[in-house]
Design brief:
This protein is mainly β. It contains 3 helices and 27 strands. It is 14% helix and 41% strand. The strands form 7 sheets. A 5-stranded mixed sheet has the order 1-7-6-3-4, with no helix packed on it. Strands 19-20-21-22-26 form a 5-stranded mixed sheet, with helices on one face. It has a 4-stranded antiparallel sheet with strand order 11-12-13-14, with no helix packed on it. The longest helix is centred in the first third of the chain and has 35 residues. The termini are far apart.
Length: 416
């Protein structure tokens, strides 16, 4: 009897001890979960209490060669900690690393998907990571100046190509081609714009003042260049220009026709087709925004008896003054050639001659390639490696041969 009672008491004691152990284990588990902070709701991973949360921002779709900004400012730590380090790493395709809360870079020239990883670290040396995808797409924009309606419109080139495909499909099926009548992306028109017989256009991103864009327009009737600054390539309807450069204030030029703006050199060249000369303004690469620092003593004028400028372009590369060239499509009654002037030395450097030149109407220089449009036969001549030919030639006049000749019926201008 006593033995049975003893056993019963022992069993009761065991059950009590088991209950205490279970309570202890459960309590320990709660303490452990509280210490590690539970699971990350996004990934399901266990996180240490007080660990930071990285936020690389939403995925982006950007244009080739445009400025990209990645912002990690939405990352946070718990109230008891603070973030001490932000590290960005391009993991696909493998690239560089940067350390800052927000970073900026220029998108590549080719379409691609860039994956960046942001890792944040707090003052307890806890880390957390997040990724963002930057979709780089080729989006070209065609700007059109209408000097009769005093307006500027633009279309995305891919939209135009889609319209061309629809037309070709209609012809293939022996149907009437559809009328390509779409609302433009840009429609700059109205009295507030100060547009007055707009003739030529140049648009460029100002990388030192990103994300601003500059749209420059030459106005023949008002003898002015109007400049519109905006955060996108689409300009609002009937908006005032950011700056209006007029002959009465800072310009001694009449009937501004063709123009070219070089972002890296902060230089603006304008063709005066009445006086047959070219006015060049700016050229100080340290200027943050060239418009506010325009002064007459920084300009020079290209003027020669054998010069009848039809178009102008400034070499689109960052170089020292003496090797930054201004290319001019020159078409006189006697001859047609491309004159090249040194921006730093402010003098004629070379005269490029080709027997096929007849009536040059436009010129573009990009990435060491010269494009020349001849209006008589609507031929576009392409010359590769032009910078070396200009720099290394010993004679003033240089005979050049095109690498490619493209015939484009009714071609009226070039841009890039």
């Amino acid at each position: 009897m006593n033995r049975h009672v003893s056993v019963a008491k022992w069993s009761t004691t065991v059950r009590k001890k088991s209950s205490c152990i279970n309570i202890l284990l459960i309590s320990s588990l709660y303490i452990l979960l509280a210490a590690i902070g539970g699971c990350d709701p996004g990934t399901g991973e266990l996180r240490v209490r007080g660990a930071p949360t990285a936020n690389a921002g939403p995925d982006q779709t950007v244009n080739t060669c445009s400025r990209v900004r990645l912002d990690g400012s939405a990352s946070f730590d718990d109230p008891e900690g603070r973030l001490v380090d932000f590290e960005w790493e391009q993991i696909a395709p493998p690239g560089g690393e940067r350390q800052d809360e927000s970073i900026q870079f220029t998108a590549p020239r080719n379409e691609d998907d860039l994956i960046w990883k942001l890792t944040v670290t707090d003052n307890d040396n806890h880390t957390h990571s997040d990724t963002v995808v930057v979709h780089v797409r080729d989006r070209s924009v065609l700007f059109i100046a209408n000097n009769e309606t005093n307006s500027i419109i633009s279309y995305e080139v891919q939209d135009i190509e889609e319209g061309v495909r629809e037309e070709r499909q209609a012809w293939a099926l022996e149907r009437d081609a559809p009328l390509w009548n779409r609302v433009p992306d840009t429609h700059l028109v109205g009295e507030e714009t100060a547009l007055d017989s707009p003739w030529d256009i140049d648009i460029t991103s100002n990388s030192r003042d990103w994300p601003n864009f500059l749209l420059l327009v030459s106005n023949r009737r008002s003898n002015a260049v109007t400049v519109y600054r905006t955060e996108t390539e689409r300009v609002d309807v009937n908006r005032r220009p950011t700056i209006e450069l007029s002959s009465a204030e800072r310009f001694s030029i009449n009937n501004p026709a063709a123009l070219a703006y070089n972002e890296s050199r902060r230089a603006l060249a304008i063709v005066d087709d009445v006086e047959n000369r070219i006015a060049v303004y700016g050229g100080n690469e340290n200027t943050l925004f060239f418009i506010e620092d325009f002064f007459p003593d920084r300009s020079w004028v290209i003027e020669r008896e054998d010069l009848d400028p039809q178009a102008v372009d400034i070499e689109r590369s960052r170089k020292v003054d003496d090797s930054t060239f201004i290319y001019v499509a020159n078409a006189t009654d006697v001859t047609s050639n491309v004159m090249v002037f040194s921006h730093g030395a402010q003098q004629l450097r070379r005269i490029l001659v080709y027997e096929g030149f007849d009536r040059l109407i436009d010129v573009v220089v990009k990435e060491n390639t010269l494009y020349v449009l001849d209006g008589s036969d609507h031929e576009i001549y392409v010359f590769d490696g032009i910078s070396a030919q200009v720099s290394n030639a010993e004679d003033l006049q240089v005979n050049i041969e095109p690498d490619v000749t493209v015939i484009v019926p009714n071609a009226g201008g070039l841009t890039s």
